[in-house]
Design brief:
heterotrimer, A alpha+beta (546), B mainly alpha (118), C mainly alpha (102), A: 546 residues, alpha+beta, globular, C: 102 residues, mainly alpha, 4 helices
Chain lengths: 546, 118, 102
């Protein structure tokens, strides 16, 4: 066989994508859920309990919070290289403090009472990571740096798969509107093509802006060489902020932070949101206070600051002021900011989020149909790529397909149930929630490897459908809330979560019924399998050429 | 709020209608819907109408969000409209096409309401 | 079979070599490329660095595609490493001539 460009690309597309299909599906699926992370967090925190708890509570006092936060950090993190504080607001009434001892160390964090500064400890609230869990799955699988790199590699595979996919699928425009259901392998290929071609601009955009958002980790070469390894200097330079100050190793106390909050709020005319202090305790200390953005204003633009003020944290002198809406830097930085906004959907409100949701799910479905197509093709006509162990490898791919696709959906909706079922008073309950999510996902893998493939699909899809459809029920039983009540009090976020879950449940029923009917036709497939083993890739090229 | 919703639906329906027209400009799908091959003039007509409708969909997007975010939304609507069409077409080709025709009228009406009420 | 066309004699080794060329060779070439670009793009240093970095993932994708389209794994490695060395030397020249600090 001649080694043509298209054949190389076909090989690359098939095998490159296959081994990363499950990771990429997880990245797409959880990232798409993450579009609505705020709504999910809102539902998970139990809106009724939050309202009850905040009733009669005094409005958050940012100055008092800054004072007790500073006292806590001076006592507990005197040697830290960096402090940060998230000030309380109406939605999140706790004071959150973060610090790290060296630039390489992990951040440590505590949640404090904003008035007394005492460790908030186990609260009556339903402590949860909420929708952030899906966001963290999306970019790091809760695995820190290793996870970030894994997702980065997968994203590069995705870019390569998109390009090689276009080369392989040469009749993009002829087949643009083509979907022929009920034709087995042909239908899977059609839907794979339609899902990818019709959403191609989105898929390229979302993957590219995703890797760009982490460019300083993935591609630091240019910045490292040009700034002698000092990335902070590069960040300051690109944002036209004062260069980071070198440690002087001369002790000097941090000026009272409430004074800086007052000064910053006066200067910008907005509420302070976050305080960060670099090199606290050293003569080189500097503080930057970031202001709260106006939601409507943020929705109408792609880039521009929410306003921030930088101080000398010893003398209190103002070093830099960035007004809201101010655009720093030239073309490249503007492009970068727009790309980040595009990835994180910080603009445009709910309509755009729904468009992202549709296109993101289409991307996940594209990956799922691709992985399924791989096995549909080989069930019909085994290609024998792995010699004697081919059948075993196919079985592994099948099991990974079931638990990577249906199993992840099951674990994701299961996470909502876990949130309602784990006792509110359990210490570290938010960690338990995530641990149980992974346990459930692992169980789907065990199940998928024990059950025949088709049964595995049907059972996991049916279980997902049940958990989706019964979500309002478990919510009613555990918290007394439900989507109808939420709608009645005008809480569209909480209602939206349950209504979307139920709609997804209906789709899962359709999918489960579809696989169930297919599995009844299995005897015919077995007859076809008796045919001579050939090359599935050849069959692919033939099918494309037909 | 009301205006934003009208703009959103106008953009979505225009994209759906434009995609339907482009689809009908192709022999395979023209045959699928109308059971006959299109005349050369019809093919040309559908193609022009399709591109025109897709281009027109930028307008409600720009009304709702301004041009730069509007164009991003427009790309999203293009995909959403095309996905809806492609997965509806084999199950009800005539219905999908009629819906496209209805979308033209409905979306133009919506745009008119938005224009009049501002 | 398909893999045979990419890897004529020893499929596993040849595929491993080619994947390494794509992943590591491609990354080296991309890094060398963006350092070089950051020197020759005639705008403020920070902006030039960011411009090159924003382009890097497209360059990397192109490099990977090229590696898998190359006739042999040896050629693929050469195609990654030779330009890397050339661009690296050119960047070293710039570095010595201008100093590193922005």
């Amino acid at each position: 066989m001649k080694n043509t460009f298209r054949q190389s690309m076909s090989w690359l597309h098939t095998w490159g994508s296959l081994w990363f299909a499950w990771i990429l599906f997880a990245v797409f699926f959880t990232g798409t859920l993450g579009v609505f992370d705020d709504a999910i967090s809102h539902w998970m925190r139990d809106p009724l309990a939050v309202t009850a708890a905040s009733e009669g509570a005094p409005p958050p006092d940012r100055l008092q919070a800054a004072k007790v936060g500073q006292a806590f950090l001076e006592k507990n993190a005197p040697k830290a290289e960096f402090w940060s504080m998230g000030l309380p607001n109406e939605e999140n009434t706790k004071l959150r403090v973060f610090w790290r001892d060296t630039p390489q160390a992990e951040f440590q964090d505590r949640e404090l009472d904003p008035v007394t500064g005492e460790d908030a400890g186990p609260s009556k609230e339903r402590k949860t990571e909420g929708g952030h869990h899906f966001v963290h799955m999306h970019f790091e699988f809760h695995a820190g740096d290793a996870g970030i790199w894994l997702v980065g590699v997968a994203a590069m595979v995705m870019l390569v798969a998109l390009v090689s996919g276009i080369v392989v699928h040469k009749k993009i425009f002829v087949d643009f509107f083509t979907f022929r259901p009920g034709k087995g392998q042909r239908s899977w290929l059609d839907s794979h093509n339609a899902l990818s071609v019709l959403t191609l601009p989105f898929q390229f955009m979302i993957v590219y802006t995703g890797v760009v958002a982490f460019a300083s980790i993935y591609m630091p070469a240019a910045a490292m060489v040009r700034y002698n390894g000092d990335l902070d200097h590069f960040f300051a330079d690109i944002q036209e902020r004062p260069a980071p100050r070198q440690m002087q190793n001369v002790a000097a106390p941090v000026t009272p932070l409430p004074d800086l909050v007052t000064a910053a709020e006066e200067r910008i005319g907005r509420e302070a949101r976050v305080i960060s202090v670099s090199h606290p305790g050293d003569a080189s200390a500097s503080a930057r206070i970031f202001m709260r953005g106006d939601e409507a204003e943020m929705a109408s633009r792609l880039r521009g600051s929410n306003g921030s003020v930088q101080f000398d944290a010893v003398s209190g002198e103002i070093l830099d002021t960035e007004m809201p809406g101010e655009i720093r830097g030239a073309g490249a930085f503007s492009t970068f900011q727009s790309m980040r906004a595009l990835h994180f959907v910080t603009f445009g409100g709910y309509t755009i989020k729904w468009l992202y949701f549709i296109c993101g799910m289409a991307g996940a479905a594209m990956l799922a149909t691709g992985a399924i197509l791989f096995m549909v093709k080989r069930r019909k006509k085994p290609a024998g790529e792995f010699g004697a162990s081919t059948a075993r490898v196919y079985r592994v791919v099948d099991a990974l397909n079931v638990s990577g696709i249906a199993g992840l959906m099951l674990a994701s909706i299961g996470y909502f149930w876990i949130n309602r079922l784990v006792p509110v008073a359990l210490p570290e309950r938010e960690t338990w929630e995530i641990g149980l999510f992974f346990a459930l996902w692992f169980l789907t893998l065990v199940h998928a490897s024990l059950r025949p493939t088709m049964r595995g699909w049907v059972e996991q899809l049916a279980a997902t459908a049940f958990l989706c459809l019964a979500l309002p029920l478990i919510n009613m039983l555990t918290t007394g809330d439900n989507f109808a009540a939420a709608l009645a009090r005008g809480d569209g976020e909480a209602a939206g979560v349950e209504l979307t879950a139920m709609a997804s449940g209906l789709l899962c029923i359709v999918a489960a019924r579809f696989v169930h009917r297919k599995s009844l036709q299995a005897p015919q497939a077995a007859k076809a399998r008796a045919g001579k083993p050939g090359s599935a890739v050849e069959a692919d090229v033939e099918a494309e050429a037909a | 709020m009301m205006q934003t919703m009208l703009n959103v639906f106008a953009a979505l329906l225009l994209c759906y209608a434009g995609m339907t027209a482009l689809c009908l400009a192709m022999d395979r799908h023209h045959n699928q819907v109308l059971k006959r091959a299109p005349a050369a003039s019809a093919r040309q007509g559908f193609r022009w109408a399709g591109w025109l409708l897709l281009a027109l969909a930028v307008v409600p997007c720009a009304w709702a969000w301004g041009l730069s975010i509007g164009v991003i939304a427009w790309f999203g609507f293009l995909s959403a409209g095309a996905l809806a069409l492609v997965f509806m077409l084999p199950y009800g080709p005539r219905f999908a096409a009629m819906l496209g025709a209805g979308s033209v009228v409905a979306s133009l009406l919506m745009m008119l309401i938005v224009k009049v009420s501002t | 079979m398909k893999s045979a066309s990419i890897a004529p004699q020893r499929p596993r080794l040849a595929i491993f070599s080619r994947v390494s060329a794509a992943v590591f060779g491609g990354y080296l070439l991309t890094s060398a490329c963006i350092v070089f670009l950051s020197y020759i793009i005639p705008i403020r240093t920070a902006e030039a660095v960011l411009t090159a970095t924003l382009l890097s993932f497209a360059l990397y994708t192109g490099a990977v595609i090229w590696v898998f389209a190359a006739p042999t794994a040896g050629r693929a490695w050469a195609g990654m490493l030779l330009p890397t060395v050339a661009l690296g030397l050119a960047s070293l020249g710039f570095y010595l001539a201008t100093g590193s600090t922005a």
